[in-house]
Specification:
The chain is 79% helix and 0% strand. The chain contains 5 helices and no strands.
């Protein structure tokens, strides 16, 4: 991957992680009463957890030796998936409108597709040359 792309995806991963920590702290402190009233603290924590895991995954992905197009595709899917998945859960945890709910699985699908592409890429790259 080109150096500029590596820096870009590492920066995105770091910003996603930074915001996960901030949102986790915000939920634990400033929103504690609201989340308790909505009985939605586990939903908030799930959003933070998935966001952090995929932030770390983006950082690690920048270390992989895969073709640029695959790295861009996987990174894009994980970024979009993290935003859709976690943001929809944050909104739902705060009592947002129910129509937000169907966005969550779309984000999850993006995450799953990104992981699938990575798995296939690693499998194909580890196969001996014919």
């Amino acid at each position: 991957m080109k150096t500029t792309n590596i820096r870009f995806y590492r920066s995105l991963g770091a910003l996603l992680a930074l915001s996960a920590v901030a949102l986790g702290a915000f939920g634990a402190h400033a929103l504690a009463e609201k989340l308790a009233a909505e009985n939605s603290r586990p939903v908030w924590e799930t959003a933070v957890r998935y966001q952090m895991w995929h932030a770390l995954a983006l950082l690690l992905l920048s270390l992989c030796k895969l073709p640029d197009n695959r790295l861009r595709l996987i990174s894009g899917l994980w970024l979009v998936g993290s935003v859709l998945f976690s943001a929809s859960l944050y909104v739902l945890a705060l009592g947002g409108p129910g129509w937000i709910g169907p966005i969550t699985p779309l984000g999850g699908l993006c995450l799953i597709i990104g992981w699938s592409i990575l798995a296939v890429s690693f499998w194909n790259d580890s196969m001996p040359d014919k």
